[in-house]
């Protein structure tokens, strides 16, 4: 009876070493601990020298992993319970200081703050919010507005509270366990990127195979014509 080994690959795996082993990117489960450890140490791919100075990505098929395992252990029955195609992201390990992280975070916060403030002011100016509030205040109280009334105050407070409640994220605190709208959009964007990378890789491989098949077919026709 063949021994079954279960393998699982996540859709995107990040590594910081150039000589990538199967255990670095694949989760392996089986009854024989020694076999699992040997499979984990099997070499899978190597990051090229040109890609070691920057972040690089490569798409692999789970069939390549199964082929590597079967070459070393032909008697094993490999069962895939994860992704059929997955992405390996290589990032060179950097020892960035705490000050640099704080500086980057501060820059992002400032850009987001002033960008959001400009967008809000542009919207208020476009719809003439001040004039509208002045008309509402004068209709309800019979007095002209000086531009700083209860309407402007409540509008400013409500705008801040609305943003905080909608995005459900203020510092480390949040209400409930559901992901925030921002987290959902980030995951959707990340999923779209991964899908595009995998599909582009599949098309590239299919194109290469088709070109090879056409070349062989033309060679056969030429041989037949010569005969």
Automatic annotation (TrEMBL):
Organism domain of life: Bacteria
Pfam families per record: SporV_AA
Region (Disordered): 199-227
InterPro entries xref list: SporV_AA, SporV_AA_N_sf
Alphabetized UniProt keyword annotations: Membrane, Transmembrane, Transmembrane helix
Domain Stage V sporulation protein AA: 3-93
UniProt key word Magnesium: no
TM annotation in the entry: 102-123, 147-167
Biased composition (Basic and acidic residues): 206-220
Membrane as UniProt keyword: yes
Name assigned to this protein: Stage V sporulation protein AA
Organism: Mordavella massiliensis
């Amino acid at each position: 009876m063949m021994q079954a080994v279960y393998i699982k690959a996540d859709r995107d795996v990040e590594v910081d070493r150039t000589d990538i082993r199967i255990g670095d990117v694949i989760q392996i489960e089986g009854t024989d601990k020694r076999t699992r450890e040997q499979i984990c140490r099997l070499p899978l791919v190597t990051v090229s020298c040109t890609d070691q100075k920057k972040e690089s990505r490569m798409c692999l098929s789970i069939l390549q992993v199964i082929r590597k395992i079967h070459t070393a252990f032909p008697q094993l029955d490999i069962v895939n319970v994860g992704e059929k195609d997955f992405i390996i992201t290589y990032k060179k390990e950097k020892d960035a200081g705490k000050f640099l992280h704080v500086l980057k975070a501060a820059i992002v916060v400032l850009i987001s703050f002033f960008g959001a403030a400009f967008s809000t002011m542009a919207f208020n100016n476009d719809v003439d919010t001040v004039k509208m509030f002045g008309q509402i205040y004068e209709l309800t109280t019979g007095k002209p507005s000086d531009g700083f009334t209860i309407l402007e105050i409540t509008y400013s407070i409500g705008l801040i509270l609305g943003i905080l409640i909608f995005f459900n994220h203020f510092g480390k605190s949040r209400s409930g366990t559901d992901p925030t709208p921002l987290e959902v959009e980030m995951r959707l964007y990340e999923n779209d990127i991964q899908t595009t990378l995998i599909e582009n890789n599949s098309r590239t491989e299919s194109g290469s195979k088709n070109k090879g098949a056409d070349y062989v077919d033309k060679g056969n026709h030429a041989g037949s014509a010569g005969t």
